[in-house]
Amino acid sequence: MAPMLEVKNLGISFGGLRAVNAFEMTIQKGELYGLIGPNGAGKTTVFNLLTGVYKPSEGIVKLDGEDITGKPTIEINKHGIARTFQNIRLFKDMSVLDNVKAGLHNDYKYSTVAGIFRLPSYWKVEKEMDERAMELLQVFDLDGEADYLASNLPYGKQRKLEIARALATNPKLLLLDEPAAGMNPHETAELMETIHFVRDRFDMTILLIEHDMKLVGGICEKLTVLNFGEVLCQGATADVLKDPQVITAYLGE
Amino acid sequence: MTGMKSKKKNFRSNIITYAMVIAAFVIMQILRSAGHISSLFEGLLVPICVYVILAVSLNLVVGISGELSLGHAGFMCVGAFASAFFTKCLQNTLTVSGVRFALAILIGAVVAAVLGILIGIPVLRLKGDYLAIVTLAFGEIIKNVINVFYVGRDINGIHISMKDKFSLGMEADGEMLLSGPQGITGIPKDSSFVVGFILILITLFIALNLINSRDGRAIKAIRDNRIAASSIGINITKYKLMAFTISAALAGMAGALYSHNLATLQASKFNFNTSILVLVFVVLGGIGNIRGSVIAAVILTALPELLRGLADYRMLIYAIVLIVMMLFNWAPKALEWRERYLGRFFKKSAKEGE
Q1: Nearest to B230 among A74, A116, A143 (CB)
Q2: What's the rounded Cα separation, in Å, for the pair A201 and A188?
Q3: Quick check: helix, strand or coil at residue B289?
Q4: Are A194 and A139 in contact (CB under 8 A)?
Q5: In 3D, which of B111, B129, B106 has the Cα closest to residue B75?
Q6: How far apart are CA B34 and CA A26, in angstroms?
Q7: Which among A125, A144, B292, B314 could disulfide-bond with B285, CB atoms 3.0 to 4.6 Å apart, if both were Cys?
Q8: Which helix (H) or strand (E) holds B106?
Q9: Domains of chain A and any CATH numbers
Q10: C-alpha angle with apex A169: A163 to A171, nearest 5 degrees?
Q11: Per-residue buried b or exposed e for A161-173, using 16+ beta carbons within 10 Å of the residue's own CB
C-alpha cells in the first residue's frame, strides 16, 4: 500500500534564500507524525509547500499514491489535505457553527438558485450540514457554543474549532501548525488528548509542527527534525530526541 | 439543538426587515391616498426606492464580500441606459407598458451583470485600495463611453456614430435613440412607487437569502480570511465574482427604475458623487447590515429635500445627522447602549409575538 504522504527531494528558494532543501518524508496511514526544529528552520514553509500555498522549486509530493505537487490550495484540499494555522485563522465574524459548515462546503452542495429561492434541496442539504457540523462540534465539546461568534471563543476553543473546521473537509491527512502555541500546560494536556482522540475516532493521519517538546514526546510516534531548511534527523520519537545533533540544534553547543 | 438559535435569530431579523419595508410602504400608500403627501415628497418616493436598492446591492460587495467598490454608479448607469434604450426601441411596437417595463428591468439587470463579470474577472485579483481605485476608474469610464455614443433609427435601420448627430446620416424621419451627452430623451414614465417597492422586496429577498446560504457562507468566509477559506477548498475567485455580479445586477435594476422615472437620462448623473453617496448609506447603515442600509438610504435621501425649508441650515443639519448616525452605529458606547435597551425591547416584543 502506498504511504499516506510521500515527499521526495522537496525544495524552494525565495530569491537567493534556500528556505527548504532536499526535504524528504514518508508518513504511513494512521501515523501521528511530528515536524520539529528551531525557529526559522522552515517548518511552516514545508506546510505551505504541502498545501500549495507555495509552489516547490523542485521535488515531488504524493498523497495516498497521487501526485499533488504544485497544485493550487483548493485542489490539494479536495485531494484530502486539511490544515490549521500557527496564528489562528478562523472566520471570526461568523458563528462557530457556520465556521464548520464552511468546511463542509465541497461535500454538501446545492445550487445558487436553490439557495436564493429556498428550493427543497436547500432545506434538505442545510439540515444535513447542520447535523454533520453539530456532530463535529460535539466531538470537540463545542456544541454548547455553536451560536457564538468564533472570535468570542476562548483561545483554546478557537484552536479546537480550527481543527473541527479542517476535519469538516473530510481529509485524509491533517496538518496542525503549532496547535499548542500560546496554551497553558493544562490546555496543552487537554489538546494532546484531543489530537489522540481525533486520530482514533476519525482514523486520521496527522502531521504536526510543534515547539512544545512535552507534547511532541508525548504523542508523536515519529519525528523529523528540520534545521536551516534541511532534514537533520528522522525516525522514532525516542531515538530522535536522544540524538546529540538534535540537542545541539535546540540548545546550542 | 443549540445551533438553531442563531438561525432563528437570523430568520427573525429578516422578518423584521421585510415587515419594516412593507409597513413603510403601506403607511405611505395610505397617506398618499388621503392626500397628505406634498408633491415634493411624492417626487422623492421613486428615488428613495432606487437608493435603497443601490445601498443593499453595494452592501453585498462592501459588507458581505468585504471589498471596497467605488464604481457602483457605473453599474447603475449601464442598467439605466440599457433599459431606457430598450424601452425607446420598443416604444411603438410593444405598447403594454407593464410588460415592456418588466423586460426593460430584466435587461438592465442582465447587461449590468454581464459587465460585472467582465470587469470583475480582472479587477477582483486586486485587493483593498487597489480594487477601490480601479472600480472608481471603471465607473468614470462607463459614464464617458456612453457620453460619446450617438444612436439613431430611421427606415434604413439603426445608425451608430461616435462623432456627432449629423454624421449618422439619417433620413428626415429619423429618430434619435441616444444622443451623446444629451443622453436619452422621451423615456416613458413607467416607474412608480409600487414598482419600486416590489423591486426593493426582490432585492431584499435575493440579498438576504444569498447571505444565509452555502454561497453566502463561502463569500463571508473569504471576507474573514482568504487563506483559511482556500485551505478548506473554497474557490476564492468564483465567490468574489458571484457577489460582485449579483451586486451589479441589482444595481442595474435600480438603474432601470431610475431611468424610467425621468424624461431625460444623462450619463453625467452617474458620477463619482453618486457612488460615494451610496457608499455613505452603506457605511452609516452599518457595513454588512442590510436593514441598516435600507434605513440609511431612506433617511439620507429624504432628509436634504425635506429640510429645504430651512434654507441655509439644511446642509448643517444633514451633516449633523450623518455624524449622529455614525456614532449610533459604530461608537462602542452607543453599541453597548443599544444592546442593553433596544436589544431588550426587541426580545420582549418577539416573545410577545410567540
Answers
A1: A74
A2: 19
A3: coil
A4: no
A5: B111
A6: 81
A7: B292
A8: helix B97-123
A9: 1-80+171-253 (3.40.50.300), 90-169 (no CATH)
A10: 85
A11: bbbbbbbbbbbbb
**Are A85 and B232 a contacting pair at CB < 8 A?**
no
The pLDDT tens digits of the residues spanning A46-96 come to 999 999 999 999 999 999 999 999 899 999 999 999 999 989 999 999 999
Determine the pLDDT at residue A114: 94
| Per-residue CA distances from A180 to A190, A207, B72, B78 (Å) | 10, 14, 45, 53
Residue B169, classified by CB atoms within 10 Å of its CB into exposed (0-12), middle (13-18) or buried (19+), is: exposed
Q: What is the pLDDT of residues A206-232, one digit of tens each?
A: 999 987 777 888 889 999 999 888 898
Between strands A205-209 and A32-36, the pairing is parallel
**Rama region for A15: left / alpha / beta (φ>0; ψ in -120 to 50; rest):** left
Q: What angle do CA B107, B112, B113 make, to 5 degrees?
A: 95
Please report, for chain B, the start and end positions of each structural domain, with discontinuous segments joined by +.
Answer: 4-353
| Residue B56: all three cell numbers together | 443593499
Q: What is the pTM of this model?
A: 0.89
Residues 6 or more apart from A186 whose CB is under 8 A from it? none
Best to test chain B binding among A47, A49, A95 (most B CBs inside 10 Å): A95
Q: Give percent of chain B with pLDDT exceeding 90.
A: 48
Q: Render pLDDT for B51-98 as a digit per residue (tens, 0 to 9).
A: 999 999 999 999 999 999 998 999 999 999 999 999 988 888 877 888
In 3D space, the residue among A112, A129, A101, A130 whose CA is nearest the CA of residue B215 turns out to be A112
Asked if A161 and A99 count as a contact pair (C-beta separation under 8 A), the reply is yes
Q: Which three cell numbers stand for residue B29?
A: 400608500
Instruction: Render pLDDT for B253-311 as a digit per residue (tens, 0 to 9).
Output: 999 999 999 988 888 889 888 999 999 999 888 888 999 999 999 998 888 887 777 77
CA-closest candidate to residue B279, choices B267, B293, B291: B293
Q: Could you identify the residue written with the cell 436589544? A: B343
Q: Which long-range contacts (CB under 8 A, 24 or more apart) does A229-232 make?
A: A229/A18, A229/A19, A229/A20, A229/A21, A229/A23, A229/A41, A229/A42, A229/A45, A230/A20, A230/A21, A230/A22, A230/A23, A231/A22, A231/A23, A231/A24, A231/A25, A232/A37
Residue A149 touches chain B, beta carbons under 8 Å: no
Out of B6, B232, B242, name the one closest to residue A103 (CB).
B232
Matching CATH number, B4-353, of 3.40.50, 1.10.287, 1.10.3470, 3.30.70: 1.10.3470
Q: Are B257 and B105 in contact (CB under 8 A)?
A: yes
